[in-house]
Structures are given as C-alpha cells and as structure tokens.
Design brief:
This protein is of the alpha/beta class and 258 residues long. The chain has seven helices and twelve strands.
Length: 258
C-alpha cells in the first residue's frame, strides 16, 4: 500500500509514504499512529460526490481526507484533529498533495463541539474513531498512538453525536470500527439515524469479520440492513481483487444486501 522513506520533518521524526499506489504522498510519525488499510477503505467506499461538504472527525494526518479527494476531487473537506503534532502533518500533507484549497484541517476536540463548523453544515461525515475502550486496553507508551487507538474520555456516543450535529438533513455518516464493537456503535446510531447499513470486512474466506463499515443517514427512517460484506485477503495472504483495486485508488462497493 505504501513506500516509505525517512525524512527529517519537525516537530517529530516522520516517514514520507505513499497511498493509493503513489497517488497520495503522506507524511506520518515514526512513533505513533500510522495509517493502515482501514482509513483507505473507508475513503474508497464513502458515498461522496462532487460538490459535497465533508467533515473528517479525528482526521489525524489526513489519510481519509486525501484518499477521498484523490477519488472525488470536487469536494471540500474539513478536518478536526486534537493533537497539534498530527494537525501539523495534516497541513503539510495538504501542501504535498496540492489540496490546500480543498482540505482544511483544524485543531479541535470531538467532545468540545468544535466551533470550526456550524450545525448542519456537512453532507457527509467520516470517522475512524479509536477502537479500544480504556478499561480493556493496554495503553501504548506513545501519546499519539494512545490517542489514536484508545477512547480515553471521549466515548463513541460523543463521536456519533458530533456527526449528527454536523450533518445536514439527509446527510450521511460513514464509520469504520472493530466488528466486536458493533453493538456499541449501533446503540447510539439507532437513536439518531436511519438508513443504517452494516458492511462486514472479513480477513479471509471463512473467517469472522474483524472490521465493519457502518453507514447511516440523518432524517430518514429506512430500516437497518446487513450486506454480504467483503473479504480482504485471499487464503495466500494477498489482497482480494476489490481490495487491491481500492488500495490503488478505485471506488469500493461494499457488498449486496442480505
């Protein structure tokens, strides 16, 4: 998915990597959260179209935003990131990819209802929240990695509430998370959203799903649906054809409804 080279960029050591087969240049920390497959697949499957106003909650260094902009260039994306070090990298990545007019990262916290956007201002909200509950996690020594992987004082309910407030009527939410926390996701989403779609991501054929992508819409009442999902890897460990195509920049269809 990426090629990596060390580069001396302050405030911390980073690597310059590439996403989408080299279409996106991407600075990220040597120590701390490093983009893997999940944000790229979320960007590949996001229901975005030219002209949409997009909010990337917890944007980090901008992997989701920049991959989405590569696929759908006619968007404007606002990022919210609480760590100044990651915000700095997001701003640098916007410059590296010629996206400063389309990707605007801001310093802010999800639970603070950041003032960088007005209620109802967005057509689409994307989020890749921390996957681990504090009381069940071995907190990493790296503060940046801990913030990316462990919920801390910001539960999933706060992420979903922030998304609801940000979205316009019939706006769309798309989130990626661990499959074993699907219940934690659905409980607050069902209180605020309709048109909920659950798309399992299976590591290999015949294996249990490890991740889910959940989509929902504000102001609709369509019943929840479950799709057949996608298998990420062939039995030999190589990426399945749709996943390989998505990691190279193609749009990703998430499976047929069951």
């Amino acid at each position: 998915m990426s090629n990596s080279a060390r580069t001396d960029v302050s405030p911390a050591a980073v690597t310059e990597d590439s996403l989408l087969g080299g279409r996106v240049r991407f600075l990220q920390p040597v120590e701390g959260y490093r983009a893997a497959v999940d944000p790229v697949l979320l960007a590949a499957s996001a229901p975005a179209q030219d002209g949409d106003r997009v909010l990337d909650l917890g944007c980090g260094a901008g992997a989701i935003s920049l991959c989405l902009l590569e696929r759908v260039p006619g968007l404007t994306v606002t990022g919210i990131e609480q760590a100044p070090e990651m915000l700095d990298l997001a701003e640098r990545n916007a410059v590296l990819n010629g996206a400063t007019d389309r990707f605007k990262p801001h310093l802010g916290q999800v639970e603070a209802r950041p003032p960088q956007f007005e209620q109802g201002a967005f057509d689409l909200v994307l989020a890749n929240p921390p996957y681990l509950e504090t009381d069940r996690a071995d907190v990493p020594e790296s503060a940046l990695k801990a913030a990316a992987h462990v919920e801390g004082e910001v539960p999933l309910t706060e992420w979903i509430e922030a998304a609801f407030r940000a979205l316009c009527h019939k706006g769309k939410l798309a989130m990626v998370h661990r499959a074993d926390r699907l219940g934690d996701l659905l409980e607050p989403i069902q209180k605020r959203f309709g048109g909920i779609e659950v798309h399992p991501l299976y590591s290999k054929p015949g294996r249990d799903a490890k991740r889910v992508i959940v989509m929902a819409r504000k102001g609709v009442r369509t019943p929840l649906s479950l799709s057949s999902g996608l298998v990420l890897h062939n039995m030999d460990g190589s990426y399945s054809p749709p996943i390989a195509a998505a990691l190279d920049g193609a749009a990703l269809a998430l499976g047929e409804p069951l």
